[in-house]
Amino acid sequence: MEQRKKLIIIIVIFAAIFVVLVVVAIVLKSNASNTASNSPPNDVNQNSYVDPSTGETVLNPTNQVGDSSPTDKSAAVILGPSQLINIGLSSNQVQLLSTYLSDYAANNKLGADKITAVSIVISSLTQNTNPDSGQSEITADLMVNKNTTQYMDLLYLSTDDLQITISDSNHKPIYNGPSNAGPSND
Q1: How many structural domains does the chain have?
Q2: 75 and 20 together in one domain
Q3: For a FRET experiment, which of 61, 80, 140, 153 has its CA 20 to 30 Å from that of 35?
């Protein structure tokens, strides 16, 4: 009988320790998930918005997050170039387009205001082939600083190159992105 009592006491002690460990684990897990959900991710401001032109969510606009995540925090946010892969631009052309749009924003103003954001209006994209040259062409509206419409015309020159022209609201060209194509040796 004495052996049986000792065995029951040992089982009760192990069961009590198990219950205490389960409760501690639940409390720790609950605290960890509360901490994670209550603190913003590193370097992300709680300000965010969905860019109506591209449908992309822009987090932390003060730190300039977008297709061209510049290290220079004063550089413009560029949204939309990566979506042009879906209509046939190569990754090199997308990178070049981002560079051209960043150059345009850095070296131009919208009236007296600095250009802080350029979004390609994805719903306005049209793609054509020039019957004279056979080159593919993409046109789209640009939304500059979230409220001014300008126009973009891209010409595919090769899979690694393109030419861009940006026009103002009166369709007057205001920026031409040069072709990377050098002189031909043929």
Answers
A1: 2
A2: no
A3: 61
| Nearest one of 185, 124, 176, 174 to 155, comparing CA atoms | 176
Tokens for 3, please give them: 């052996």
Task: Please compute, for residue 31, the number of CA atoms within 13 A of its CA located in the half-sphere on the CB side.
Answer: 6
The token duo for 129 is: 């082939």
Q: pLDDT (tens digit, 9 = 90+) per residue, 102-136? A: 999 988 888 778 898 999 999 999 998 878 877 88
Q: Are residues 66 and 25 in the same domain?
A: no
Instruction: Tell me the per-residue pLDDT of 134-174, one tens digit each, with 9 for 90 and over.
Output: 788 899 999 998 889 999 999 887 788 889 999 998 999 99
**One domain for residues 59 and 133:** yes
Q: What is the DSSP string of 22-88?
A: HHHHHHHHHHHHHHHHHSPPTT--S-EEE-TTT--EEE-GGG--SSS--SSTTSPEEESGGGGGGGT
Q: Do residue 125 and residue 92 come from a single domain?
A: yes
